[in-house]
Amino acid sequence: MTQISRRTFALGAVAGTTLVACGNGIGGNGASTIDARVASTLDFMYGRYPGTKDLASKSAGMLVMPLVTEVGLGLGGSFGRGALQVGGTTVDYYSNTGGSAGLQIGAQQYSHVLFFMTQDALINFRQGQGWAAGADIEYAISDQGETLRAETTTSLSPVIAVVFAQAGLRLGATLEGSKYTRIIP
Question: Per-residue pLDDT tens for 84-107?
Answer without folding.
Answer: 999 999 999 999 998 888 888 889
